[in-house]
Every structure is written in structure tokens, then in C-alpha cells.
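Support request, please re-run this one:
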Amino acid sequence: MMAIRLAAACLLLVVSPVRALDLVPRQVAPGVFAFIGDTGARTYENEGMNANTGFIVTSAGVVVVDSGASNAVAQRIETAIRRVTAQPVRLVINTGGQDHRWLGNAYFHAKGIPILAHENTARDIQERGRAALEGMRGILKERFEGTSIQLPTRLFKTRERIEMGDTQFEILFSGGAHTPGDSIVWLPVQRVAFSGDIVYVQRALGVLPVSNVGSWLAAFDLLAGLKPALIVPGHGNPTTIAEAARDTRDYLRLLRSHMKQAVDKGTDIQDAIRSLDDHSFTRLLNFSELRGGNASRAYLEAESE
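Re-run finished. Output below.
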């Protein structure tokens, strides 16, 4: 009898569904909240939310910063907002073209809520959106039901100033970074910046085929010039510009300078990667998995210039 009970208990453990993602907003400044995602890979358990999103509460409504990795996640974002304020969502901003920044767009669009992004982000979603959709569907399975591609409905070129109720903020672009349209949401009164994927801390950044190390550094310089008191990074805990510089800017500078020198000297790609002294960044999570791809793409970028 005891063996039967143990077997039944084990069966329950096997078939019981994994608990849904619990999005808990962290207040980082008056009226400014962040959802801090996992620092590892996208998984079924974290519902693809291995990145940070957030929202801003104003006297005239709520601004959502990135809509999440699925229709279901977007709905949970809205539910979490309702626990903080009765104000309705009035605007969604996509800070870039990575999947977990826009796959929740259709949920908010169905409610008539405008979605603002840089024009490069709209193009990026058009070009990579289908692959992103299918990739996330493979991870989230039934949790991805109802998710579809929804492009931003309102585009900007360089700077968009927004005043909503008692709150002023800007969305700024200086060039592609991790993705071609990566942008900063800047609240000048609170001196808080949502950096999107321009900043990674505590974990290694990823240089993608669509990334650009040179313009990524320019985007970081734009952020640093704002002198933010607090940054909500794309990945990792809320941080300072000093930590962001150590974990993101300094690594990008190393990649850029080393690979440019290698190309200028005619060093082949394998020798350039082998001679890259990046040991000071091994402290970052996921670095060993990403370093080879990052180095090779930085070399190819320098070679194409």
C-alpha cells in the first residue's frame, strides 16, 4: 500500500503543471515600476521573461515599457498594474526588436492602446518577427496560445517627447545596439532610465547578427550623458551608470578595439578570437556560452567597415 501511495505521489509530481509566471512590480522611483526577469535563458517556466520590463504611473494613465513575451504575459502585466493603480494603460513602448519586448503587443492593441517604437524596431519585427514567433512558440507551447505579431502603431526617428498628466518623459535613439531600434525611455524628473537592451549587468550581453557594436557604444554614451540616478537595464538588477559601464560599455570597447586592430593588421578571425583577453568578464553569467559568438561577430563588423 505504501508503495502505491508513493507511486501516486510521484505521478502527481510529473503531471502537475508548472506554476505560471508571477510578475511582481518593483518600485524604483515614485510612480516608476520594473518587472525584473530571469538572467538565464528563455524557458517554459519563466515564460520567456528573461528580461526586464516595467511601467510608469501618471495622473492620466499608465505607460507600459515593453509588452512581454506572449499574449498571456501581457495580460499578467496588466493584472499586476491593476494591483498598483486603477489608472488604465494609455501607451505601450517597445524599446527594441527582441522578442520579449514586443510579443505582447497584440494584447494591448486589441484594447485600442497605441504602441510606440523606433522605426527600425518596426522593420526589425517585420524581418525577424516570424522566426521570433515560432521560436517562442516552441519554448512556451500552450502558454503561447493567442500570441500574434503586432507591429508598433506609432513610430519616431530620433527623439519623442511625451507629456502624460503630471509626468514628462522621452524616448531616445542614437543608433542600433543589441537590435537595430534599441531605445532609451528617460524620465528627467525622476532621473530614471529604462535602457532596454543597451545595458546588461550581472550577465553577459549578446552580440547578434543584427547587432552593431560601434553604434551600441554610441547609444551607451547617449545614456551616460543623461546622468541617470538609476537605470532599469534590459537584463539584470536596477543599476548605476558605473556598473553599467563595467558590465556593458567596457566589454563592448574591448571587443571593438581588439577586433578593429586585428582586422587592420590582417589577423585572421580565429587568431583574433584566441588572442582576445576577456578574462575580466568571466564573472558575468552566461559569458562562456556567448563569448565566442560575440567575438566573431565583432570581428566581422570591423571587417565590413
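DSSP finds eight helices and twelve strands in the chain. The chain has one domain: 17-241.
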